[in-house]
TrEMBL record:
GO molecular function terms listed in the Swiss-Prot or TrEMBL record: acyltransferase activity, transferring groups other than amino-acyl groups
Pfam families tied to this protein: Acetyltransf_3 (PF13302)
InterPro entries: Acyl_CoA_acyltransferase (IPR016181), GNAT_dom (IPR000182)
Domain N-acetyltransferase: 17-176
PROSITE patterns given in the database record: GNAT (PS51186)
Swiss-Prot/TrEMBL keywords: Transferase
Name of this protein: GNAT family N-acetyltransferase
Organism: Halobacillus locisalis
Signal sequence region: none
Length: 182
């Protein structure tokens, strides 16, 4: 069975999360130490909790959760989501996680985020897309800046992780800024 390719580029495609992905998410994505640090994840997950999360997202029209997979071998390398979709104010928040370390630093995250931003502005008719990123995630900050995101604020000491406090950097991009750059 050929996978659904909801959004795609030359190297990757984004598709809906399916039930068959849940074990992969539970065993790899949610327990990867580097991924947990970069996302500030401190919660403890079990398989039943992941199942309940999946079921709740299926009927939530304020979010779109997608898997990031490679075009050449359909390997799932991460996930991406558009959250808090607000049609009245034409805004949303995005988040991304590349949990296969073989694909870090190769531009896959930037490419996936570009697909999601295009979708937000061109299909969802959004005006503003925001995100937050922890101050130690310099690779992600550079990627977001490359896509046109600008720093809008800092939430000081927002995360306590491994015995240290870290700031959360709030970033956003407006439709006109993005269109001008791309």
């Amino acid at each position: 069975m050929n996978p659904i390719k909801f959004l795609q580029s030359n190297r990757l495609y984004l598709r809906p999360i399916e039930e068959r992905d849940l074990d992969h998410f539970y065993h790899h994505a949610l327990w990867d130490q580097n991924g947990r640090r970069l996302t500030g994840t401190q919660a403890v997950f079990n398989r039943q909790g992941v199942q309940k999360w999946f079921e709740s997202t299926q009927s939530d029209s304020s979010r779109i959760d997608l898997v990031i997979a490679t075009q050449d071998n359909d390997q799932v390398i991460g996930d991406i989501a558009m959250l808090e979709i607000d049609q009245q104010n034409r805004s949303a928040v995005v988040r991304i996680s590349i949990f296969d370390e073989n694909y870090l630093g190769e531009g896959f995250g930037t490419e996936a985020m570009s697909l999601m931003i295009d979708f937000g502005f061109q299909i969802q008719n959004l005006h503003r897309i925001g995100l937050d990123v922890f101050d130690f995630n310099e690779r992600a900050i550079r990627s977001y800046q490359k896509l046109g995101f600008k720093q809008e604020g800092i939430v000081r000491d927002a995360l306590f992780y491994d015995g240290d406090y870290h700031d959360s950097i709030l970033m956003g991009v407006l439709e006109g800024e993005y269109q001008k750059q791309h």
